[in-house]
């Protein structure tokens, strides 16, 4: 089933939606995952917004079977302050009784008593399979209840069809059909926080650490955390090591120590196996390293730490979008509509047939049991395939330069590290350019080796140095440096200034043949204002900084009633940070440059907050993009709110400033930077091979950049 059609007029579309007379219930089942509360909140508020009645089902399927106070009507206020809470506040339980026909009969009776015919289930494949079975049996269950005299014929007619929509809440990211499940990104945050902390003690004592992460049947957490922290070795169930892996791993660890690396990190998925289906355990690896190499080795098992804590900005937005889409799916469902699951494909929330996805998920385990590991990786989907593809290195031999342009963004260093190491693995000689194009024309260019980028993944800012200088005024000197160092290709990592720089080089090709080389750009800016890409490197880290700060600010008002906070975010003239940060933090309103507003809008927002203060939620949050309006400044809005809200609420203002640009990159940005840089180097290698004839790189007509969709896009006349 395809996702909802594109909305040309979103406001008008939502105004025309009606859930009047409909009852929706939401439950969480199976293992908990950070972000489930955001999904519950979105279902409740979207349902109420369209006029439907929404119910909580506490304690999962057990609550549905038991009924009574476990099924309660939800209100707008009852989901306030849920966004930042981990786990699931409505509870989750595994229910053996629901697996029986008698249990499902009780559950059906409890739903019919409240006229609930729309069910939103948040859980894993087992929970969603149970929901689909419940839907298939629904008609028969109503007939039985009628025969037993528990309901009448009118109730049967009124509740004749049960609609089911699923959302996958699982930190393992083990469900086929979606790129990411709710909770996965937050679990990665917990893992990377631990690895970053362990790194400091490991370096002090020259230790090897073996970390076990969750993922009994799926190695996603292990694989992505290994990429994000620059681990030396990783074990996942889908790609078991071949015979002799012990020798290869020990040789790799020994070589790293010989290169003066003071620590080794080995990450193991809890379900890791070798090619003979024999378990590979952290203790076995530790004993192996100690016995063969004599390294001081420690084992850390992260366990349920990965499930806990505050959900990341990514999970809050993902869960919120999925929750809204789930309600839309329920409203648009007909009697013949099959159960669907809301999935993330690329950057879009889409609806897919539930049981097709469940069956594909089960096929993965079947393939692994039969030792068809390549098939298992294929079934896992494009996320696994993209990472494994990045590990293949066709050999080539050219000089490639990499540089950062514009403002620093967390994740730039991960991208540089990935580009350097993939380039070297493919046979290239890699050059680092310091301080962007300013350093380029000054000749600040030197060869960069494999070991030079060790430990860069977790470093914030730009270790190469970056400037906003554009190449337009220094084309002659830049062309000369390209000739001096015999540079055959250029990788530029940066934001809008980088895009402008590439266009200037492109336009200068008529006068400078030296610029007729493969040039590729990776979008990296916290503002996320580069056209043609859904996301830029650094934006996720900045969003997490905004959301964490908003959480603390909101918490500071927990003992102070009736307070409104005005918070200014960065982003230039792009409202991405303010908009998405506002969604993730639960803001009351957001002011951005793209959506014009006037004094009447400000007055309406003050009146809204005045009414809000009469409820139990006596706290307000307003986000303002730094350049949203030259007259309605942060100070102006603060003074307006303070004056108009006098006697009802008081105000505080915060300008977040450059804290949004600093800090260690998030797991998403580390992984994103690593993958797109690898893809960029693969494009550069292919292009160089295609244009290399007679010992010379011939004229290349196009400039490319790698957007978040991972499809190369040409820059040129039509850009």
Automatic annotation (TrEMBL):
Q: Which SUPFAM superfamilies match?
A: Phosphofructokinase
The protein's UniProt keywords, in alphabetical order, are: Allosteric enzyme, ATP-binding, Cytoplasm, Glycolysis, Kinase, Magnesium, Metal-binding, Nucleotide-binding, Transferase
Q: Record keywords: Ligase included? A: no
What's any GO biological process attached to this entry?
A: canonical glycolysis
Kindly list the GO molecular function terms attached to this UniProt entry. Answer: 6-phosphofructokinase activity; AMP binding; ATP binding; fructose-6-phosphate binding; identical protein binding; metal ion binding; monosaccharide binding
Instruction: Give the signal peptide range.
Output: none
Residues in Phosphofructokinase domain copies: 24-329, 399-684
Which reaction(s) are listed as its catalytic activity?
Answer: beta-D-fructose 6-phosphate + ATP = beta-D-fructose 1,6-bisphosphate + ADP + H(+)
Gene Ontology CC annotations of this record: 6-phosphofructokinase complex; membrane
- Show the stretches that span the lipid bilayer: none
Q: In which pathway does it act?
A: Carbohydrate degradation; glycolysis; D-glyceraldehyde 3-phosphate and glycerone phosphate from D-glucose: step 3/4
Requisite cofactors: Mg(2+)
User: What is this protein's record name?
Assistant: 6-phosphofructokinase type C-like
Report the source organism: Stegastes partitus (bicolor damselfish)
Gene for this chain: PFKP
């Amino acid at each position: 089933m395809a996702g909802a059609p594109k909305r040309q007029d979103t406001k008008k579309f939502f105004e025309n939606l009606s859930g009047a007379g409909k009852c929706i219930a939401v439950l969480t089942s199976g293992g908990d995952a950070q972000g489930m509360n955001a999904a519950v909140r979105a279902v409740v508020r979207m349902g109420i917004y369209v006029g439907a009645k929404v119910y909580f089902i506490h304690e999962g399927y057990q609550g549905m079977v038991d009924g009574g106070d476990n099924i309660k009507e939800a209100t707008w206020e009852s989901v306030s302050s849920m966004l930042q809470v981990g786990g699931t506040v409505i509870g989750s339980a595994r229910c053996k009784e629901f697996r029986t026909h008698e249990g499902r009969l009780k559950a059906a009776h409890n739903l019919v008593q409240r006229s609930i015919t729309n069910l939103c289930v948040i859980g894993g494949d087992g929970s969603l399979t149970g929901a689909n079975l419940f839907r298939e049996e629904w008609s028969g269950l109503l007939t039985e209840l009628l025969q037993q005299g528990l309901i009448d014929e009118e109730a049967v007619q009124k509740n004749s069809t049960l609609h089911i929509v699923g959302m996958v809440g699982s930190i393992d990211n083990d469900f086929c059909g979606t790129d990411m499940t709710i909770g996965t990104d937050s679990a990665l945050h917990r893992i990377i926080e631990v690895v970053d902390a362990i790194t400091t003690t490991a370096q002090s004592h020259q230790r090897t650490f073996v970390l076990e992460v969750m993922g009994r049947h799926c190695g996603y957490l292990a694989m992505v955390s290994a990429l994000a922290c620059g681990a030396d070795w990783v074990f996942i169930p889908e790609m078991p090591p071949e015979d002799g892996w012990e020798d290869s791993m020990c040789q790799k660890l020994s070589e790293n120590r010989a290169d003066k690396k003071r620590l080794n990190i080995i990450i193991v998925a809890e379900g890791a196996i070798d090619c003979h289906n024999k378990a590979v355990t952290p203790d076995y690896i530790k004993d192996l390293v100690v016995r063969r190499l004599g390294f001081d080795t420690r084992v850390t098992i992260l366990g349920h730490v990965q499930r806990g804590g505050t959900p990341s900005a990514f999970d809050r937005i993902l869960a919120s979008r999925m929750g809204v889409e789930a309600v839309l799916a329920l409203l648009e469902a007909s009697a013949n509509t099959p159960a669907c699951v809301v999935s993330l494909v690329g950057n879009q929330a889409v609806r897919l047939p539930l049981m097709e996805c469940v069956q594909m998920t089960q096929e993965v385990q079947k393939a692994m049991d039969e030792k068809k590991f390549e098939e298992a990786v294929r079934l896992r989907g494009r996320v696994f395939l993209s990472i494994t593809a990045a590990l293949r290195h066709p050999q080539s031999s050219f000089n490639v330069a990499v540089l950062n342009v514009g403002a620093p963004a967390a994740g730039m260093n991960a991208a540089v590290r990935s580009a350097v190491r993939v380039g070297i693995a493919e046979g290239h000689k890699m050059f680092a350019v310091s301080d962007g194009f300013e350093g380029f024309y000054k000749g600040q260019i030197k060869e960069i080796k494999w070991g030079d980028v060790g430990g860069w993944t977790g470093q914030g800012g730009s270790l190469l140095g970056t400037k906003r200088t554009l190449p337009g005024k220094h084309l002659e000197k830049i062309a000369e440096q390209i000739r001096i160092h015999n540079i055959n290709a250029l990788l530029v990592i940066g934001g809008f200034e980088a895009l402008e720089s590439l266009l200037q080089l492109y336009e200068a090709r008529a006068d400078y043949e030296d610029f007729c080389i493969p040039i590729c750009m990776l979008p990296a800016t916290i503002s996320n204002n580069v056209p043609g890409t859904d996301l830029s490197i650094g934006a996720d880290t900045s969003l997490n900084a905004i959301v964490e700060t908003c959480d603390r600010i909101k918490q500071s008002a927990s003992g102070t009633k009736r307070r409104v906070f005005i918070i200014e975010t960065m982003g230039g003239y792009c409202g991405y940070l303010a908009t998405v940060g506002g969604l993730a933090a639960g803001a009351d309103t957001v002011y951005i440059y793209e959506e014009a507003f006037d004094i009447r809008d400000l007055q309406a927002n003050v009146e809204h907050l005045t009414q809000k203060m009469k409820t139990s939620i006596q706290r307000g949050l307003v986000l303002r993009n730094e350049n949203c309006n030259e007259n309605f400044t942060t100070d102006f809005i603060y003074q307006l709110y303070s004056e108009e809200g006098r006697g009802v609420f008081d105000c505080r203002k915060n300008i977040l400033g450059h804290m949004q640009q600093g800090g260690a990159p998030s797991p998403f940005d580390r992984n994103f930077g690593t993958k797109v840089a690898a893809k960029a180097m693969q494009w550069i290698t292919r292009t160089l091979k295609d244009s290399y004839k007679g010992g010379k790189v011939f004229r290349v007509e196009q400039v490319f950049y790698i957007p978040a969709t991972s499809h190369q896009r040409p820059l040129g006349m039509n850009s």
